[in-house]
Design goal:
Layout (H helix, E strand, L loop, with lengths): L15 E4 L8 E6 L9 H15 L8 E4 L3 H13 L3 E6 L4 H9 L3 E5 L4 H16 L2 E2 L6 H18 L7 E4 L5 H13 L4 E7 L41 H8 L5 E5 L1 H15 L5 H16 L5 E6 L21 H8 L23 H11 L6 E5 L4 H13 L4 E4 L10 H13 L6 E4 L2 E4 L1 H9 L2 H8 L24
Parallel strand pairs: 2-10, 3-4, 3-6, 4-5, 7-8, 7-10, 8-9, 11-12
Antiparallel strand pairs: 1-2, 11-13, 13-14
Helix pairs in contact: 1-2, 1-5, 2-3, 5-6, 6-7, 8-9, 11-13
């Protein structure tokens, strides 16, 4: 364990872990688990290296906006680094990459500009260049920036040399996205461990480096067009529709020994096997790299040592094919387990809860209720709980429409002394004969709970009341409020 001055000190020094159940042919198979980086991927290294290099060289000024094109992991790493260092960040990303990634970046304070999926990786790259030129932003240029490769030579490669000191290392297996890991590590291994074979994995339907066809470039070195061998594939973060300059450099310097095509289904299967047989939770590209490493193990001399890179965690793939067969609801086996004991089952009636004795209504709570419901300065009032999913669904609707409101959160600290929240709820229940939360009012008129409010919105009644009470909001918003409920609360 260590103590750091900031989260950035935790980048790197990721563990190498033995794979015990999946390695064939008596090979020693190890994986370098890059999800141990703070934001869960190998691209944290790139992000820190590129930003700190730009600071040292004066390419990045204090407070200047940073921009980059990314499939997600680089953007997430940059969002962490920029948040810590105080740089605004804009990322461009093709719309077909997983939703979790854009949400993570926005949560870290970045702005995410989506580009059409039909324009592939080159589209998001050209959009980033256009925005950088227009606004004077610092463009990271991860696909060609030497700082990307350098950080891997200085960190990732050195960690591998340290972890395999005085031990065999026959094969190092990786994929490529920007080519930074590939170039930065392979040049160090070729110098320090020349016996180590460098294995480059690619999607079998999009093996652009293994094709032998050079990448078309403009006179300034920029990408002229998509590589002719590129096809859409499952491995997000791997193999853009062009050969990055850094990857091209590694190939041109004869650093690469074996090109290994990987089937998409093998990538998914190996990711699942790693999770369920080894307890290692990774994404699709990591499963693909492992698939390549397993193929190497099958033909390598007995006793060979193989190290595979696992680029990221599986958490950012929930909306991808990796999780298509993972059920949100109970499976048949799980239902049988539930039925094996009598209580807390969905298929059996539960005993009715005992109703608590109604609390007495206090004059203070009555007066507070009158004051809040009839306050002309804040016509929209919601009595709510902080934790309640129904309450948050109403909050989302109000936020989407820009409806200003006052929330009386009865379970919050402000209402706990002398059970003040309970007193208010007792007055609310007694006057309107309700027992559920939330309860919404507009201009003193009682609307009802979440579903009544949603119905009033869909039927236009809520909008009429807002207008009558001078509440300004965005009338152009069209939203089905029921879509804002958590999935398990959707009406069936």
């Amino acid at each position: 364990m260590a103590k750091y001055d900031s989260i950035l000190g935790a980048v790197g020094n990721t563990p190498v872990v033995r794979v015990n159940k999946l390695a064939p042919n008596g090979a020693k198979l190890y994986v370098k688990v890059e999800s141990f980086n703070p934001m869960g991927s190998v691209k944290d290294r790139l992000a820190l290296g590129v930003i700190e290099d730009a600071e040292r060289t004066g390419k990045l000024s204090p407070g200047q906006t940073v921009i980059e094109a990314t499939s997600g992991n680089t953007g997430i790493g940059l969002a962490m680094v920029c948040a810590q260092k105080g740089y605004p960040l804009v990322v461009t990303m093709a719309e077909n990459f997983s939703v979790e990634r854009r949400k993570m970046m926005r949560f870290l304070g970045a702005k995410v500009v989506l580009t059409p999926a039909s324009e592939k990786g080159t589209g998001m790259l050209l959009k980033a260049q256009e925005l950088a030129e227009t606004h004077g932003w610092f463009l990271c240029r991860q696909f060609e920036n030497e700082a990307n490769a350098n950080v891997h030579s200085e960190t990732t490669a050195q960690e591998i040399l340290r972890d395999f000191k005085d031990e065999r290392l026959d094969y190092w297996v990786t994929g490529f996205g920007t080519g930074g890991t590939l170039k930065g590590v392979s040049r160090v291994l070729k110098k320090e461990r020349p016996e180590t074979k460098i294995v480059v994995c690619e999607p079998d339907n999009s093996a652009i480096m293994g094709s032998g066809i050079p990448q078309a470039r403009n006179d300034d070195g920029s990408i002229a067009e998509s590589h002719p061998s590129f096809r859409a594939h499952l491995m997000q973060g791997w193999t853009p529709d062009f050969i990055p300059k850094l990857a091209e450099d590694a190939q041109g310097a004869d650093l690469l020994d074996i090109f290994m095509p990987i089937k998409g289904n093998d990538a998914l299967r190996c990711s699942l096997n790693l999770a369920q047989k080894e307890g290692i939770f990774v994404g699709i590209s990591a499963g693909a790299t492992l698939a390549g490493a397993i193929e190497i193990c099958k033909t390598a001399p007995k006793g060979s040592t193989v190290l595979a890179m696992l680029p990221d965690t599986g958490e950012r793939y929930m909306t991808t094919p990796l999780f298509y067969d993972i059920s949100e609801d109970m499976t048949a086996d799980e239902i049988e387990i539930s039925k094996s004991t009598p209580s807390f089952r969905f298929d059996a009636p539960q005993p009715a809860p005992k109703e608590a004795e109604p609390k007495p209504v206090t004059p203070a709570a009555e007066a507070f209720l009158n004051e809040v419901i009839n306050d002309p300065e804040q016509p929209v009032v919601m009595f709510a709980f902080e934790w309640c999913e129904f309450c948050w669904s109403v909050r989302k609707m109000f936020a989407e429409c820009g409806i200003p409101y006052r929330s009386i959160d009865l379970d919050s600290v402000d209402y706990q002394e002398n059970d003040w929240g309970g007193q208010i709820r007792a007055a609310l229940n007694a006057r309107f004969d309700v027992k559920t939360i939330p309860q919404i009012f507009v201009g003193g008129e009682y609307i009802g709970g979440a579903t009544e409010t949603f119905d009033a919105f869909n039927e236009g009644e809520l909008q009429t009341l807002l207008g009558q009470n001078g509440v300004a909001y965005n009338q152009a918003v069209k939203v089905d409020p029921y879509s804002l409920l958590p999935s398990w609360l959707h009406p069936r």
